[in-house]
Structures are given as C-alpha cells and as structure tokens.
C-alpha cells in the first residue's frame, strides 16, 4: 500500500470512474448519474452538499462546502461535469492508457481537473489541521453551452469568495490561465421578398445577398493585432436555386480581450441595418461571458501559485487564451486563477487525452493552494 496520498494510479482510477459515466450537456439524465457519484464522494467528509435541480434541459448543479470557515470569504473551486461528446462516444474513445496518455471523452476538458480538486479536498479533510479558509466546490452541468442555468449561481458564489480556482485544463504544456477573451453570440435574421429568379427577378429582394453585405461588415471588424475576432460560423437561407431568397440567417461569434472592446463592438453588431430597400435585418444577442482580465489580485494569486509550484519542482507559466470559461464570470470582481486542471491535449476531439505525468504535481498544487491561501 503506497503511503503517497497523491499516488497517480489511485487518482487515475477515480478519474476513470468519472469519465466512464458519459455526460453530454444535452443529456441531463446522464449528467445526474455523474452528479450522484460525485455527491456520494462527500458523504464521509466534513462537508455539506447542496444539489440544485436542473432546468431548461440541463442537469443538476452540486455545491459542496467544507464544514469549517464558512462564516468568512474563502476559496471557491469551479468545475463542470458536462462534456461536448455525444452519448456513445466512449465506444470510439474508450478509457485507456498508452504511455503517458490516458484517453476518454471529457478526460482533459475537464473531468481530470475536476477530480484533482476533489481528491485534494479529500486529502485536506484527512489532515489534522484545518486550512485557514473555507473551501466550496461548485460543479455545474452546462458550461459547454455557455452556463445559461448556472451563471447566476457562479456569480453569487464568486462574490462571496476571496479566491476562485478553476479546474479547466492546462494549456500548452502545463501553462496556467490568467486571462481569457470575452465571448458574445449573435443571431442575424434577414427578411426579403421572394420572386422567380428567371422571369421576375426585379420583383425580388434577396435576403442572401443582404446577408453577404452583413458578413462583409462583420468580417471588417476583425482586428487580430488587438485580439478581436468576429466569426460568422453558421449561415442558412433560401429554398430553391430558381427562387430569390426571402429569408437568410447567420450565427456569429465575437471574442474580445477587454470590456472596452466589448462596449465598442457589441452595440455595433446589434446596430447593423439593411442596405437594401425592402429588406429587413434584425440582429439579436449579447455578451455571454465578460472578458477575464488579469487584475492586481489575480496577478498576486498567480505569483503565489507560481512559488508553490517551484517548491513542488515545476515551473508554472501563465498565458492569456481566447476560449471562455466560468472563470470569466468571477474574474471581474474576485481574484481568479484558471487552467489548474490536468495537462493534455485534444479537448472536444476524438483523441482527447490527459498526460498521466501531470496528475500528481497538479493535484499537489491544488492541495497546497487549499493549505496556504489566507
């Protein structure tokens, strides 16, 4: 029996149990099977567990609170249990270990990191001394679709906390995340007038042609040097090749590094109007996740984690990334550190994997953060 409380094989076996319960966001029944397992893991610990019933087609959320320190701001650990992979994907990507890689749906994004946080909490509970701050672990069921049913809960818990640790996966060889772009989503609906494309084209007003103008306007807002990206990712329109298109539709993704950029570009996109008489353009949408900008408090939290990592024998480098996470909701008002999960690659792909060698050092880092934050 190993005396190492962070034995990689033991932790990996726990991760496997979580991975082998598939949990696509759109399958609340499956997500709740995983919630059952996670909740059961706290039954023998000095913690209270609250389960918030799912709604709008999403699974339940789970809040586990340490029995100590809850009368003062403490540490909030943010994790999600849902994955992007559809049911049955585990047959294509079964849990298996090859060399330094362990494969499975959601193992990297982010069941590996979520389990590390849970394991580190178990170890804290097994020790004689309680750490200075309360630990609250929040597991949500809808992060992969933008956290529509958990955002209010995340923000409320984030406002009560002194620090937020997010167990999203590490980046590019173990880098930690101290900034993320804000994300906005928009729907563009265009209504024109149909006509026969051969005999009476002059009677028509093409919604597709107008959509072309809109796409060019949106593409013109891209500014890669400033980190601003506008992507028209979905388009639909028309009925037949010999009919002037009456309707057209597009879905748009905007990424911005700062709130100033969001304040500038969101109204511009919402304000796009038709250039053609007889055609209407309606744009709806909003900023879904605010930018996660590296604050002074966030920088100090990173420096503390970097020093702990050095004591544990590895270098912790921080990075800014374009992807959003639930950390975007807490970073504007609470010191937030993201990317604390496992290292690996292939999030959302058919080769998703974690690096087995990252398990012990990163579990130990979370444990030391629990011990030393005050």
From TrEMBL:
Keywords, alphabetical: Hydrolase, Metal-binding, Zinc
Protein name, as recorded: M20 family metallopeptidase
Sequence ranges assigned to domain Peptidase M20 dimerisation in this UniProt record: 178-269
Keyword Disulfide bond: no
Known cofactor(s): Zn(2+)
Keyword Nucleus: no
InterPro entries: ArgE/DapE_CS (IPR001261), Bact_exopeptidase_dim_dom (IPR036264), Pept_M20_glutamate_carboxypep (IPR017150), Peptidase_M20 (IPR002933), Peptidase_M20_dimer (IPR011650), Peptidase_M20A (IPR050072)
Transmembrane segments: none
Active site: 82, 143
GO MF: hydrolase activity; metal ion binding
PROSITE patterns, per database record: ARGE_DAPE_CPG2_1
Source species, domain of life: Bacteria
